[in-house]
Amino acid sequence: xxxxxxxxxxxxxxxxxxxxxxxxxxxxxxxxxxxxxxxxxxxxxxxxxxxxxxxxxxxxxxxxxxxxxxxxxxxxxxxxxxxxxxxxxxxxxxxxxxxxxxxxxxxxxxxxxxxxxxxxxxxxxxxxxxxxxxxxxxxxxxxxxxxxxxxxxxxxxxxxxxxxxxxxxxxxxxxxxxxxxxxxxxxxxxxxxxxxxxxxxxxxxxxxxxxxxxxxxxxxxxxxxxxxxxxxxxxxxxxxxxxxxxxxxxxxxxxxxxxxxxxxxxxxxxxxxxxxxxxxxxxxxxxxxxxxxxxxxxxxxxxxxxxxxxxxxxxxxxxxxxxxxxxxxxxxxxxxxxxxxxxxxxxxxxxxxxxxxxxxxxxxxxxxxxxxxxxxxxxxxxxxxxxxxxxxxxxxxxxxxxxxxxxxxxxxxxxxxxxxxxxxxxxxxxxxxxxxxxxxxxxxxxxxxxxxxxxxxxxxxxxxxxxxxxxxxxxxxxxxxxxxxxxxxxxxxxxxxxxxxxxxxxxxxxxxxxxxxxxxxxxxxxxxxxxxxxxxxxxxxxxxxxxxxxxxxxxxxxxxxxxxxxxxxxxxxxxxxxxxxxxxxxxxxxxxxxxxxx
Length: 598
Ligand code: ADP
Known about the structure:
About 50% of the residues lie in helices and about 20% in strands. It is α+β, with helices and mostly antiparallel strands. The strands form four sheets. A five-stranded antiparallel beta sheet has the order 2-1-5-4-3.
């Protein structure tokens, strides 16, 4: 309780006030009692002095009676219990009830006598110079009962002084003071207790409310306070409760918003980082860590440059914050990734309070662009060769060679062959682009039930002349119970024809080609096996790429475009199937086309 400053501020001043007031009252009472007591004593002395004056007036007036004065004074003094001193106007003591006058010094300078000489009465409370004890003195000229001064034989005037011992008075006063002090003390204790009670009553709710407000500020927003009493404190408690309620719902809302924001951020494929103006990371999503190559869990609270180890991004972040201007940079390759990074200050207007970094993975479109460039270069290259040949021979013919009976047919033959090559190339390109656009958009080819056996026979018929020309043996082994599959018969025929065509092209004369088809689980499997030249191991992963040939000139000679296997791969893909290859150089190759059934 005493540790509460509010309690101390309320209680201690009151306690001090009570002490001061009680002390003032006590001192005043003590002084009043003292002065009243002295006054009473003075009054008693005054009366006694008049009686003493009257009693000794005879001794003073008659010179014969002077010798009896001192004994008389001693007798009266003993009787009334006061010390009596008689002196002449020159200060010589002529009688004293408690001392021997000849031994007493001149009393002219005693304050009470001085006052009596000057004003007719003198009062003084002080220690006696003669008997060394505290006395109250009253001195007056000696007068008779009518107030006439007593004149001595030699015409001199006398002064009488009565004194009372103050020891008793002091003792009585001490008892009184002790009583007063005890009463004052009791009053202070009682008033202090009352004060304590009220101070406590007023302090307790305030300190309760202080603790409550403390708890709120520490985030304990579920706490509430209840007060029975009415008035300002109860109003304050209600206001604090309402405040806690609003705070709680605000914090809930803020937490909900934050959770929503974090959910949105975590589900984004773009990397997002928010920092303050000192580039200290406030929010970061997983995608940012993945794209920019850092551990997301430990990133919050760290500086951007500690986390993102890319000079371009760090430099741009500094510039954006300094100029308050949005910036887009291309970053990469960053461990094989290419990124577009947008940096912008927030808010977009006014003094920036932070920075938002958004990283967008453009690797795929970057690769597409690269592929497109490569494709255009390849196509141009593929077209240029036959066109150059055709142009050359046409010009030769124009220059007169058409008349040469021997050479003209040969030239025309070459032109024809290259024109075929061009036609093949263009039709393969068209086919491929059709297939690619379908597989790229995830569109299945126009689907219909496909009789695989029929399709294989058609492909065989198509290639029969070429096979026969090279005196190769082509055998078909198609399972009789082969179920129908769903797909595009033309595409499948084209794929199988391409595989047979390749088998024929890359197998020497009199070689063997075998086509088998069977169902295996959920797939129909068409295998084209030859005993031709085979494919080197290192080329196998690339033969399905567009325009890739193991031996370019040999392929061209055969009328190949380098697109045949690409077309097969796309046909397999658009049907949800696969193409596999096994090959041993010098021994032959096996191409396996797997197409899903049903
Ligand atoms: P091409 O029009 O040149 O035949 P493809 O895409 O059909 O193009 O084939 C790519 C390359 O794969 C060919 O140039 C050839 O080197 C190789 N290849 C394809 N099939 C076979 C096979 N059966 N035997 C050996 N090599 C083959």
